[in-house]
Design brief:
alpha+beta, two-stranded antiparallel ribbon, 2 helices, elongated
Amino acid sequence: MTVLDRMWTEDDGVLSFEWTLLLTLLAIGIVAGLAGARDAIIDELGDVAQAAQAIDQSFSLEEVSFPGFFSAGSEYTESAADKVFEDCARTNAPVGQTPQAVSDLPS
């Protein structure tokens, strides 16, 4: 409290109005920066979600046989219905980015 008390009574060129104005501008800048970071993080997490949904999990394993051990082959093919995903309903993009339709994305 003594620091705030000394700042309040300071007369050497710095007025309390200037401090108030400076802190107000700083708070507005922080809020705007956090909003921009929030939009960028949401956009990137949406891209990660789409990439995770587009992973092709099809695989096949050849049969393996050793003396005393046998493993039959295995195969799994992912259907096209499993790969369908929709873009989020975001209608405006963050500054510097343009939204793309799902049909414009690479396969």
